[in-house]
Write a structure and sequence with these properties.
Layout (H helix, E strand, L loop, with lengths): L9 E5 L4 H12 L3 E6 L2 H13 L3 E6 L5 H15 L4 E4 L14 H29 L2 E6 L12 H20 L5 E8 L13 H14 L4 H12 L8 E4 L7
Parallel strand pairs: 1-2, 1-4, 2-3, 4-5, 5-6, 6-7
Helix pairs in contact: 1-7, 3-4, 4-5
Length: 249
């Protein structure tokens, strides 16, 4: 079914080279969206763009490190230059190197804050001026079940994902004059490369086992994204929290 409110929309996605971003790019492109994909792994992006355009879709790749504000701005500006507007910004790039605080993995704390919080802010900063001018747009930020619950070993990750929810709620209230919609999506265990960012051996073993037993495919997230975008423009789906049926945490 061609989704009437997705067809033709210009959608920018960060973290689009794998996992949630890649699945969203595929589904939205299949439903007629024009997708502009950002990630650091340019080769992965280019092969995805080739696949999508080969299927008749409109897609562009822009190498993007979300910890660099100028690169996120370039990603969005490229979309606007190519297609004349930006309808949806999906701030999806994220990292989850879990460990107990006492392990003092400070470099990993810094990296999570840079990617998971600043990366989202830079995405908002890049998209908002265009959307204000258009008096239309939709910003989708990716939180996590960890944005609702804190577990041992996930304190910093959970803090970043709680921050995404707070930012999204502040944004929601501020953009009312511009007719901009905001959605924060909090997935549970979804099969992505996220557990691979865990360097702490004990945490990695625990997490890989949990994901192997519990995780659901990434297109579960893509369908949540499509649901939010596809609502009529006067309907603003602000928050989606979902888990695998068998996930108890």
């Amino acid at each position: 079914m061609m989704s009437s409110n997705i067809d033709g929309k210009v959608v920018v996605i960060t973290g689009a080279s794998s996992g949630l971003g890649e699945a969203s790019a595929r589904l939205l492109s299949a439903q007629g969206a024009r997708v502009v994909l950002g990630a650091r792994r340019e080769d992965r992006l280019n092969s995805l763009v080739k696949e999508l355009t080969g299927s008749g879709g409109a897609a562009l790749a822009v190498a993007t490190d979300v910890t660099r504000c100028a690169e996120v701005k370039r990603l969005v500006d490229t979309a606007v230059a190519a297609y004349g507007r930006i309808d949806v910004m999906i701030n999806n790039a994220g990292l989850m190197p879990q460990s107990f605080l006492e392990r003092l993995r400070i470099d990993e704390w810094d990296r999570m804050i840079d990617v998971n919080i600043k990366g989202v802010l830079y995405g908002i900063a890049a998209a908002l001026p265009h959307m204000k001018q258009q008096k239309a747009g939709h910003i989708i930020n990716v939180s996590s079940v960890a944005g609702h619950k804190v577990r041992p070993g996930s304190a910093v990750y959970a803090a970043t994902k709680h921050a995404v929810r707070a930012l999204s709620e502040g944004l929601r209230q501020e953009v009312k004059p511009y007719n901009i919609r905001t959605t924060v999506i909090s997935p549970g265990a979804v099969a992505t490369e996220l557990p691979d960012s865990v360097t702490d051996p004990e945490a990695a073993e625990r997490l890989h086992k949990f994901y192997a037993e519990t995780a659901i495919p990434a297109d579960s997230f893509a369908r949540a994204v499509a649901f939010a975008i596809n609502q009529p423009e006067d309907v603003d789906i602000n928050e989606i929290l979902f888990r695998p049926t068998r996930q108890d945490l």
